[in-house]
Every structure is written in structure tokens, then in C-alpha cells.
Amino acid sequence: MKWLNDDDIRRFLRKRNYDIRLSHNARWIDQKCTSDVVTIVSDCILQYAHRCPGGFFTSTDVWHDRYTTENVEAIFKKPNPDEIKARNEYDKFFQQPMEMLAYAGVLLKDKRSARNFYCIAENEILEYLSIRERNALTFLQLYILKVLEDSGIKRIFDDFFVKQTKTAYENTKDGFTNFIIQYTPVNGAVECHRIFTKVINPLAFRLGKRGTEQGKMSHGKITYDMLMYNRDNFRDIYSEKPKELTRRQYADQLGLAPSAGLNAYMSQKAKKLVRAFNDTFRAGMSEIRDGRHDADKAIHIHHIFPEADFPDICAYYENLIALTPTQHLSYAHPLGNTWKVDRAYQHICLLAKANVIQEALCNLSREQIYEFRKFMFVLFVGLDDDSFMQIADGDFMDAISAINIVYAR
Question: 135 in helix, strand or coil?
């Protein structure tokens, strides 16, 4: 896998002219084009194309594929794709992101009679989108900016982001609506307003600004979870947990039931990403340098806090560590029993992971996949200790000290 960065995406986008005044295409972005949907649709396309290489495909081909039916229903709580009543919803769920990807040039589109056929035009970009939602969000933000620039309407958004007033908001909303109606087949303000949300909010989040919420200017800054199609923000939920309750008691009290399908899917994707990151930037070495297995490749990705016991953090990169087979099956799991975790070695894993995360965050020229606050959340959940949520951002010494205190008890 080739690691792409923002500059790679900008270079890709610069090759194309996305001027809506010339294309008259209203489907350059749509309601279902959120980063989590774009990620899963990109992944489903790649999986389908891997099994059926070299040809064109329709959105129906992709959403009837076995990989899709095993994942999308559980992840996004949608009816089985084989159900007749699901057709319209799945059409939009896959068609809209695929139309966006075709307009962007990631897919090649061929219209045959009334049906749209696609093939992969830019495999590296599609792979980049399929890896994680943050990649898809970055792509959407840069793509939206390029479309607005090419179409000559970026200035009306710039004005709102500078002024952040209700008047500026209404001017931007009306300006976008009038533009879309003038240059595309869309002739209703309601549909324009739905599209407007998917345009302004990713940019607002990127700039740390207010955007739109329920048809009005948002009360506060747009947050990451507001951009998602279907996701609970467990860090925000648990931040309100009463001290007298355990994490699980609080989750049960609220009736939270993280999707098992989502957990399994995201966990496997996270493992792939951490393995690729370790192979690319750490030469495939184990994250635990113990002198005994330094020459062995770290081909196993281990959950420091087991997936079965801690589903909330199973897809956090900060909870995954690259180990050699011996380290994984002899030390982390005594006698190869993956249902058991050696507590002493778990302690070693956490200290090693802290060092790897600190090293990665200090290397600003490297792709960043880790976040200090997420590591603290992993520790907070895995060790059920509130003290980790109080540690200052980036204070690894305090974090390591707190880890040692827990395991000394």
C-alpha cells in the first residue's frame, strides 16, 4: 500500500477542472457523501473489483456482493440488500458516493441507456479512501474546495467563515442555492439545502468554524461526529460518566450497544492499517524491542486490551501493537490461548506503545495515524481509571507514570 498525503491528493485534484458551470453536474456531491459512507463504499468497490477484476460494474453489483451484505447491514443498520424494500435506500447509499467519485475522477463512468457503469480509474486514491474515515474526510475537504474554486463560488463561503454571522450564513446558503439552480438540473431549494450541508460542514470542521445544523447556522463549531452518517461518539458519551459507575455499567444504563458487525469490520481494517504503517515506517519491526526477537518480522497485530472484552476501543490504532508471532502467541497470550492475556506483558505492551506513539507524533514529516487523546481514552477504558482523562495533552511522562501506578497495584 502506498501512503498518500495531503499534497498527493492536491496533485491529483489539480489535474482536473471541476467547474460546475461547464459540467452542469449536480451530483458532484450528495447527501450520502459523508466520510464514513465514502470509506465503506470505497472498500466495498475494491473488494468487489478484487474478485471480479478488469471490468465495469454497477452500484447494484457492489451492494449485492457478499462482502457488502456481510458488512453494510450490520455497520449502518440497514435492511438486507436482498430485501425489495431496501432497493431505493441502497441505490442512494452506493450510487451517490459512486457518482461523486466519478466526478472527482477516482472512478470512470460509462452511461449505457439509463444505467451507470463504473470502473476504477485511480486505484491508489480509492485505496486511500477505503483505509479510514479521516482519509475520506481529508479528500472530501480538499475536493470540495477545488470544486468551489473551479466554479468561482469559493468567495461566498470564505465570507461566511470570516464573519460567522447569521446574515453571512444566509447569504452563503442563498448564493449556493441560486448557483446550483442556475447551472444544474436541480430546480428546488430544498434539495440544494441538503447538498449545502455536505459542502459547508466539512470545510467548517477543517477551519474550526460554525457551519449549518437543522437548516440554520450551528450554535457552535462543527464537530467530527456531526459529519458522520451513523456513529456514536463514545468518548463524548463516557466523558459524562458518573464516577460511582464503571464504564460498562454506564453504557448499560444508557442502553448503548455497539454494533458487533461494526466492531469486527473496523477492527480488521485497523489491524491492516497498523500493519501497513509498521511495515512502511518501522521496517516491519516489532514494537517491543526485547533483544530476543529483533530480527523477526512483526507480522501479528495484537489487541492490547482484547477485542471481545473492550469492543469500544477495538478499532483504535492506539490499542493495537505489532508483535512477532512468538511475542504474540507465547508472551501476550500464554501458551497461545488467545482468550487469556498476560497482565505483565500487557504492561510491557502499553509502555512500548507509548514510546511508538510519542516517536510517531514527534516526526512531523511522517503520516500521522495516532492521537495522544485517543491513547488516553484507550487507557481510560482498558484500565477503567479516570485519571488518564485528566492528563495534559502530550504529557507522555505523566501517562507512563500513571500506567506504572496501575500495574503496581
Answer: helix
pLDDT confidence tier of residue 84, bands split at 50, 70 and 90: low
DSSP state, residue 394: T
Q: CA 153 to CA 131: how far, in whole Å?
A: 31
Domain that holds residue 192: 6-212
| Domain identity same for 55 and 198 | yes
Distances (CA, A) of 390 to 1, 144, 319, 400, 409: 37, 37, 19, 14, 20
List, in order, residues 6 or more apart from 357 with CB less than 8 Å away: 318, 370, 372, 375, 396
Model pTM?
0.81
Q: Are 198 and 31 in contact (CB under 8 A)?
A: yes
Which is nearest to 98 in space by CA: 151, 56, 141?
56
Q: Do 282 and 203 reside in the same domain of the chain?
A: no
Q: What is the DSSP letter of 333?
A: S
Q: What's the full length of the chain, in residues?
A: 409
Residue 219 lies in a domain: no
CA-CA distance, 264 to 270, in Å (whole number)?
Answer: 10
Region 14-35: mean pLDDT is: 95
CA angle in degrees (0–180, nearest 5) for 17-20-25 = 110
What percent of the chain shows pLDDT beyond 90? 66
